[in-house]
Amino acid sequence: MKNFCVVFLCAAFVFALASCTKSNKTIIRMQHLEEGVSSPTTIDELKDAIRKYEERVADIQLAQSQIGIWYKILATRYLDKKMYGEALKTFEKALEFYPQNQNLYYYVGLCAGYMSHAAMDFDANGSSEKRMNYLRLSEDAYKRAIEIEPRYARALYGLSVLYVFELGEDEKAVPLLERLLTIETKNIDAMFVLARAYYVTYQFDKAVAMYDQIISLTKSKERKAEAEANRQTVLDASYAN
C-alpha cells in the first residue's frame, strides 16, 4: 500500500507540473480529498491532519530519493555504452537530488572530458569555445569532488590528467599527484603522469627519481621499458641544459 502511495504521489506531482492551468487551490483540494483532511479545528482533528501530512512528506522524500537513485543508475548505463553526452546530462539530473555526492561530480568530470573530444568546430570558424567549455566543466567537477572528499584518488588522478594532457597546466597537476601518491603509493599510472609533469616543469631530478621508482616497482616489461626510455629522455634534456 505504501509503494502504491509513493507511485500515486509521483504521478500527481508530475501531472501538477505539466498542467499550467491548475491553481494552488485545486491542488490543495486534491490533497484534502486524498487524505480526508479539510479544515481541522479540534485538537484531535489538528493532530490527525499533522500525522497525515507528515506521512505525505515522508512519502515524497522516499519517492525523490528513489528517483535520484534511478538517475544515477541510468547515467551509469549510458556511461557503460560510451554515450557520454547522455550520461553527462543524466548525472547532472542526479546531482539535483544528491548535490553532495563526490562520485557524481567525478563522473561529470569524466564525461565532460570525453565530450570535449567530440566538440568539433562544425561551423568551421576556428572557434574552440565549445571544447574549452567542456574542459572547464570537467575541471570544476573534479575540483568539487575533491572539495567534498580531499582523499578521493580517482578525482585527483582525473584532474591531473586533465591539466597535463588537455589544458597544458602541468604545474597544477604536480601537488595533486604528489597527494595522490601518499594515498595510493604504488599507483604506476599516477607516477608516469607525475614524472611527465616534473619533466615539463624542468624538475629533471625529480622526474628521473620517479622513473627509477616505476622501474623498481612495475612487473610489466612494457611499462619498465617505457619508463627506461623516458628516463633517458629526461637525462638527455638535463645534460643539454
Give the termini distance in whole angstroms.
77 Å
Number of E-state strands = 0
Beta-strand portion reads under 5%
Radius of gyration over all CA atoms, rounded: 27 Å
Oligomer: single chain
Mean pLDDT: 84
The number of helical segments is: 11
Q: Encode the helix/strand succession as letters.
A: HHHHHHHHHHH
What form results from the Cα inertia axes? elongated
Largest sheet: none
Low-confidence stretches: 1-22, 26-35
* Structural class label: mainly alpha
Tell me roughly what share of residues is in helical segments. Answer: over 70%
What does this structure look like?
The chain has 241 residues and is an all-alpha fold. 80% of the residues lie in helices and 0% in strands. It has eleven helices and no strands. It has helices at 2-18, 24-35, 43-80, 84-97, 102-118, 129-148, 153-167, 170-183, 188-200, 204-217, 221-240.
Strand and helix layout:
Blueprint: H1 2-18, H2 24-35, H3 43-80, H4 84-97, H5 102-118, H6 129-148, H7 153-167, H8 170-183, H9 188-200, H10 204-217, H11 221-240
Helix pairs in contact: 1-3, 3-4, 4-5, 5-6, 5-7, 6-7, 7-8, 7-9, 8-9, 9-10, 10-11
Q: How would you describe this structure in keywords?
A:
single chain; 241 residues; mainly alpha; disordered N terminus
Give a brief outline of the structure.
This protein has helices at residues 2-18, 24-35, 43-80, 84-97, 102-118, 129-148, 153-167, 170-183, 188-200, 204-217, 221-240.
